[in-house]
Amino acid sequence: MNLAIIPARGGSKRIPRKNIKLFCGKPMIAWSIEAALQSGCFDQVIVSTDDEEIAEVARCYGATVPFMRPAELSDDHTGTIPVIRHGIEWFHAQGQSVEHTCCLYATAPFVSPEDIRRGFDTLAEVGCDYAFSVTSYAFPIQRAIRLNAEGRVEMFNTEHFNTRSQDLEEAYHDAGQFYWGRSDAWLQGRMIFNPGSTPVVLPRHRVQDIDTPEDWVRAEWLFKAMQAETQ
């Protein structure tokens, strides 16, 4: 079985009720659920939550909520891997074998069915532990600066002050959309950011962290612009 697990706990702090707050006319989580269903990759699309309201919204948009996530996996310090492992173990306890599992974040309205399929194809073709979405940094990280205790500027890597941008190695970061993995990798707690993983590269304009109200406004502007382009 191929399983999609969408983690969506109820305790968002910076944007209250973020997982079900309306984003461009739909609860945020609805965009992830619909992309998962439209991808055609999954035998089941489930939401792992500790919150009954989130569970009800998830069901309304076509996901299932076969269990409520326990409190010990629903605090601010619980990582993604234990939550996904819990979901896989629940299905195994019901006598259902899970071969591949995709963690799909509830706050990823830019995720597309095509990219989810591409992630699965990459996992299958390469034979890696994980295949997950990444995108490139817009500026060379080797020339990044920090502000010191006196409010002055310091370079992280002073040796690159005179290095041309085009001569620096391109760097990538987690796009925060989806993480395909072999179920044994999730169960064994293997790290996602390691040589056993393969990237699924996305263009920067389709990647947006949504952690603050300012992020939310920017994301809606970008999302509406992208929708207008396709109409």
TrEMBL record:
Listed Gene3D superfamilies: Spore Coat Polysaccharide Biosynthesis Protein SpsA, Chain A (3.90.550.10)
Family matches, as CDD domains: CMP-NeuAc_Synthase
Keyword entries, A-Z: Nucleotidyltransferase, Transferase
A Gene Ontology molecular function term of the record: N-acylneuraminate cytidylyltransferase activity
UniProt-listed NCBIfam families: PseF
PANTHER family in the record: HAD SUPERFAMILY MEMBERS CMAS AND KDSC (PTHR21485), N-ACYLNEURAMINATE CYTIDYLYLTRANSFERASE-RELATED (PTHR21485:SF6)
Name of the protein this chain belongs to: Pseudaminic acid cytidylyltransferase
Species the sequence originates in: Pseudomonas silesiensis
